[in-house]
Amino acid sequence: MRQNPIILVVEDDESIALLMRLYLEKEGFEFVHAVDGEQALHLYRRLRPSLVVLDLMIPKIDGHAVCKQIRREGTTPIIMVTAKTQSQDKLLGFDLGADDYLGKPFDPPELVARVKAVLRRSQPKVAKQLRYEGLLIDLDDYVVEVDCERIVLPPKEMDLLHFIASHPNQVFDREHILGKVWGAEYEGDNRTVDVHVKRLREKIERPDLPWSIRTVWGVGYKFEVQKP
């Protein structure tokens, strides 16, 4: 049985990778290193790590493509690391399914703190189900069913859906959602919420079902359930 969480670090700069290794192993994580996108996907499929730390600017297959492929195959948490800090780069990363984003240069203790925080947030929640007409949110299996179709969501999308669906017809602003779903330590752009809501809508909403994630302009979002 695996004793320590495996952290797959995808980084082509050997000096940075070595620094990550020193700090992650010191905290009890098992460190696995990939130097390019092809090796990253190979190791991901073979080891199924607990978390992936993914540099965007890597050889052979770039980080965005690696992130997209990992997200197609599973829900392993991903922290993107890059020197690119423009807002559009971050939003693209979140749109592809990344759970967090860390800009270079960074302090190794911050990386460790983010790894711990993402792992903590990605743990399955206490067994519980939420049901609406045509919708089952099952936190035992960490899946959603829409009209009996099983849909596997990444951890952040699942957490977001569960939070707003637990409070039907209640409006939440983006800052409140960030605090509840991403945690108080999260310092990213609140448009992250918009990206995740967009992805959720595409995956779960059906025009014939009496619920939807509604935008309340100038405020935020609510899980709207129509009365019979």
How is this structure best described in words?
The chain has 228 residues and is α/β, with parallel strands linked by helices. It has two domains: 6-122, 3-Layer(aba) Sandwich (Rossmann fold), CATH 3.40.50; 152-225, Orthogonal Bundle (Arc Repressor Mutant, subunit A), CATH 1.10.10.10. Helix content is 41%, strand content 23%. The chain is built from eight helices and twelve strands. The chain has a five-stranded parallel β-sheet, sandwiched between helices. Helix 6 (155-165) crosses helix 7 and helix 6 packs across helix 8 (191-204). The protein is elongated. The model has no long low-confidence stretch (mean pLDDT 87). It is found in: Cytoplasm. GO terms for molecular function: phosphorelay response regulator activity; transcription cis-regulatory region binding. Residues 6-119 form the Response regulatory domain. Residues 127-225 form the OmpR/PhoB-type domain.
